[in-house]
Amino acid sequence: MPENTSRRGLLFGAAAVSTGAFLTACTSNDPKESSDDDAKDAPVADEKPGKKVTIGFAGPQADHGWLNAINVQARARAKKYKDVTLEITEGSNDTAAQIGQIDTLINKKVDVLVILPADGKAMTQAGLKAMRAGIPVVNLDRIFDNPQAYRCWVGGDNYGMGLNAGHFIGEQLKDKKNAKVVELAGVDNLELTKQRTQGFDAALKNYPNIKKVARQAADFTVESGQSKMSQLLQAQKSFDALWNHDDDQGVGALRAIKQAGRDEFLMVGGAGAKSAMDAIKADNSVLKATVLYPPTMAASAIDLARALGQDKGISGLAEFEIPTSLTLYSAVVTKDNVEEYLPTGFK
């Protein structure tokens, strides 16, 4: 299909029909004329310079270690490619402000947009506007509530994060009678927090000897982690394990634990901060593991955006087009494998 008609007409139009139709309609070769031999030579993105691509990147304000790592990963990945120009916004937690930033990137006619929305549901129209303008959107982490608002979604597995934390704790306590666990959750009105708790609870159902006896919701900050953990420690005179959703608030939680002089339990963190990995490596606190929510997803989003801008697929896959979604795995980092994951730890 001619390049001048394929992007605007089929980018949004095919998505409006279905994701499957999009994959069929926008391949680089006409499927009716392709043979098995053609499929073997499907164009794929690689590190060699190709068609120049301008990628617009719009994310929330980097007021948290993980969010800052998202920006760092995106910038570093873009610099890796000589054919990529990155237009990055300042970032804002205000939905209206972020929508304005996306409008600016659309008006600049960037080739592809990578968006980590402050609020996926509230910003769906921004994604739709970009797609209608013929600009493919890579929706990062917080998902829009309409699949027509993005070409590809890439993000973490919040349910899997809780599931893996629960299974790790379960295996550590499987031989202990009447084991008790507590949970220090994140922001309760966020869907990701609910999913992490749901995964954790689902895993614990496999261990009838373990009971969750308390749960507190914090706010992903050091201060909230310390105050909420203090409340948990005061209410629970003894327990065997703690699942903490976020390593930033975990810094505060560890302070509260140290101040209380408690060490009868093991702690599992979440996200993969460098401070958590350092503590796991040192093995001198209750923190024995952290479950990753990899900020490397931002680097992957740049890879996918570049491939979209160059009308290419992904090396290692037979598909002519990039997939519509990519969910990252939440690995459990312990003392046994921390050296492998330490380079990915964020500050």
From TrEMBL:
InterPro entries: Peripla_BP_I (IPR028082), SBP_2_dom (IPR025997)
Cell compartments where the protein resides: Cell envelope
Cellular component aspect of the GO annotation: cell envelope
UniProt KW keywords: Signal
Domain named Periplasmic binding protein: residues: 55-310
Matching SUPFAM superfamilies: Periplasmic binding protein-like I
Bias (Basic and acidic residues) ranges: 40-50
Keyword Signal: yes
Span of the signal peptide: none
Record region (Disordered): 27-51
PANTHER family: D-ALLOSE-BINDING PERIPLASMIC PROTEIN-RELATED
Family: Belongs to the bacterial solute-binding protein 2 family.
Protein name, as recorded: Sugar ABC transporter substrate-binding protein
